[in-house]
C-alpha cells in the first residue's frame, strides 16, 4: 500500500470507524462536561487536537531513541509527564493570547492532562508500530474525530435541553442516554475500511 | 545499577520540561490583577456559589472588574463584606441573613390526616398526597433541609427542624431543598417573624392547624409603620419598614407572629 492511501485510511479510521470517544470510549470527561455549548465544545476539541498532535510528535522520538528497547515499561510515566507539560504550555498560550477561550474552558483545560484520549493516542501510535509521519496523522485524525463527536453531541444536547424531559432523567441521566445513542450510531461505521 | 539509567532518563526529561515551562512562564505570564488576589484572600473559599458566580475565584474576578457587589458572600457574612469593602474602598453595610422555617405546626399543633409509613424524607412524603398533615403548606419534619445543610446548622428535635442561627451561613440550600417551599432567608436581626405559610382562606386554615394565619388582618391594623400586610391570605412582614415594636405579635389571635 503506498503512503498516501495508508494515511487516508488512518484519517478515515481515526475520524469515523475508530472514533476516540464514540467507539473507543476514551476522553468521556470533556465529552460530557464541555459539550453544553457549541463554541466551547469546538474550542475544547481544538485544544485537545493540538495537545494530541504535539504529544505524538514529542513522544515518538522519546520512545524510539530513549526508551526503546530496554525501558519501554516507562512509557506511561514519561508520556504523562510530557502531556502534562504540554497542557501547561497550551494553557499559558491561551491565557495570554485567547482569554475568552481560556475562560470558557475553565477547569476542563487542565483536565486535558488526565484526558485518557491524549495518552491513548500516543500509546496506540506505539502499539500499531506507526512511523513518525503516520503517528502525527493518527493524532490529527483522533483529534478531528474527537471534534466531530463533541460538535455532534453539543448539537444533540442543545436539542435535549429544550425538550420536555421527566424530572428524574433531567441533567446527567438524559445526557448519558443521548451519548449512548450517538455512540450506537457510530457503530454503523464499523464495517467500512476494515 | 540497572535502575539508575531509567531513573536518570525520567529525571532529565522532567528537568528539561520544567525548565521549558519556567522559561515559557517568563515570556507568557499574564499579570493577574493584584486587587483580585487581595479580594480572593478575603473570601472564605467555600466555593458554595451563593454569590451567583462560579466559586470564590469567579466572584473575586467579578469584584475586581467592578461587576459585583461586595455583600454577596453568604458564608463570609458581615466580616467578609467589610474586608471586601476595605479592599475595594467602598463602605458596606451588610445585613446578615438566616434561614427561617415559616411553620409552627409540627409536631403537635397540626392535624394528622393519615399514617405515613413510606420513605422518611420530605420529598417522598410530599408526593403522597402532600404528606400526612392537614396543612398543604406545613413542615413535614423528615429533615430534608437538615441533610441539605453543609454547615450543620439544622437539627431535628421532636420531629421538627430547628435552625441554629449562629451556624447558618444563609447559603440557601435548604430553601431550594424544601418541597413545601416554606424556608426563606430573612434578616438575622428580624425581631418579628410569621411562623406560617398557609395561603388558604381562614376557615380551612383554622381547622387544619392551631398555629395558623387566618388572614384576619389584626396585625396589619396594629402596625404603625405599615410594615405588615396580608397578601394572599397570609401576613407578610417588610423588614425594611419593621421597627420591631412587637404590636403585631401582641394582637395576633393565633399566636403565629412571634416577637423576640
SS field, number of helical segments of chain A: 9
DSSP, total strands of chain B: 8
Query: Looking at the structure, what is the overall shape of chain A?
Result: globular
Number of helices of chain B: 10
How far is the first residue's CA from the last residue's CA of chain B?
Answer: 79 Å
Q: How many structural domains does the protein architecture of chain A include?
A: 1
By oligomeric state, this entry counts as: heterodimer
Radius of gyration of chain A equals 17 Å
| Computed CA radius of gyration of chain B, to the nearest angstrom | 26 Å
The CATH architecture of the largest domain in chain B comes to 2-Layer Sandwich
Mean pLDDT of chain A: 86
H/E element sequence of chain A: HHHHHHHHH
CATH class of the largest domain in chain B: Alpha Beta
Structural class of the helices, strands and pairings of chain B?
alpha+beta
Biggest interface? A-B, 18 and 16 residues
Percent range for helical residues of chain A? Answer: over 70%
In the predicted model, the low-confidence regions of chain B spanning at least 5 consecutive residues are none
Strand content of chain A: under 5%
Amino acid at each position: 500500500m503506498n503512503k498516501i492511501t495508508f494515511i487516508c485510511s488512518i484519517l478515515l479510521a481515526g475520524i469515523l470507524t475508530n472514533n476516540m470517544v464514540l467507539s473507543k470510549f476514551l476522553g468521556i470527561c470533556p465529552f460530557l462536561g464541555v459539550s453544553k455549548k457549541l463554541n466551547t465544545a469546538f474550542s475544547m476539541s481544538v485544544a485537545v487536537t493540538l495537545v494530541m498532535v504535539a504529544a505524538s510528535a514529542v513522544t515518538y522520538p522519546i520512545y524510539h531513541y530513549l526508551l526503546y528497547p530496554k525501558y519501554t515499561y516507562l512509557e506511561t510515566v514519561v508520556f504523562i509527564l510530557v502531556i502534562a507539560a504540554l497542557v501547561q504550555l497550551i494553557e499559558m498560550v491561551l491565557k495570554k493570547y485567547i482569554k475568552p477561550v481560556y475562560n470558557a474552558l475553565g477547569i476542563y483545560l487542565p483536565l486535558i492532562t488526565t484526558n485518557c484520549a491524549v495518552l491513548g493516542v500516543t500509546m496506540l501510535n506505539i502499539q500499531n508500530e506507526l512511523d513518525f509521519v503516520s503517528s502525527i496523522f493518527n493524532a490529527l485524525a483522533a483529534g478531528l474525530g474527537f471534534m466531530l463527536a463533541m460538535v455532534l453531541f453539543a448539537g444533540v444536547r442543545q436539542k435535549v435541553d429544550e425538550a420536555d424531559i421527566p424530572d428524574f432523567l433531567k441533567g446527567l441521566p438524559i445526557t448519558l442516554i443521548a451519548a449512548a445513542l450517538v455512540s450506537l450510531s457510530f457503530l454503523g461505521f464499523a464495517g467500512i475500511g476494515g | 545499577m540497572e535502575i539508575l539509567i531509567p531513573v536518570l532518563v525520567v529525571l532529565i526529561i522532567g528537568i528539561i520540561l520544567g525548565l521549558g515551562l519556567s522559561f515559557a512562564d517568563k515570556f507568557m505570564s499574564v499579570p493577574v490583577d493584584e486587587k483580585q488576589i487581595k479580594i480572593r484572600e478575603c473570601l472564605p473559599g467555600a466555593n458554595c456559589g451563593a454569590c451567583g458566580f462560579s466559586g470564590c475565584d469567579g466572584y473575586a474576578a467579578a469584584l475586581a472588574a467592578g461587576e459585583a457587589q461586595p455583600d454577596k458572600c453568604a458564608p463570609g457574612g458581615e466580616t467578609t463584606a467589610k474586608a471586601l469593602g476595605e479592599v475595594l474602598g467602598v463602605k458596606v453595610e451588610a445585613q446578615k441573613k438566616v434561614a427561617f422555617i415559616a411553620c409552627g405546626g409540627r409536631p403537635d399543633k397540626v392535624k394528622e390526616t393519615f399514617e405515613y409509613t413510606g420513605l422518611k424524607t420530605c420529598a417522598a412524603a410530599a408526593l403522597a398526597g402532600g404528606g400526612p398533615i392537614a396543612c398543604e403548606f406545613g413542615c413535614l419534619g423528615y429533615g430534608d433541609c437538615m441533610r441539605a445543610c453543609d454547615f450543620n446548622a439544622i437539627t431535628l428535635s421532636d420531629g421538627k427542624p430547628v435552625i441554629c442561627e449562629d451556624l447558618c451561613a444563609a447559603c440557601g440550600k435548604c430553601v431550594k431543598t424544601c418541597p413545601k417551599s416554606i424556608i426563606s432567608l430573612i434578616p438575622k436581626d428580624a425581631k418579628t417573624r410569621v411562623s406560617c405559610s398557609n395561603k388558604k382562606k381562614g376557615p380551612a386554615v383554622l381547622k387544619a392547624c392551631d398555629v395558623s394565619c387566618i388572614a384576619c388582618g389584626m396585625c396589619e391594623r396594629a402596625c404603625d409603620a405599615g410594615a405588615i400586610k396580608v397578601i394572599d391570605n397570609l401576613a407578610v412582614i417588610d423588614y425594611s419598614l419593621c421597627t420591631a415594636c412587637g404590636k403585631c405579635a401582641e394582637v395576633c389571635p393565633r399566636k403565629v407572629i412571634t416577637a423576640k
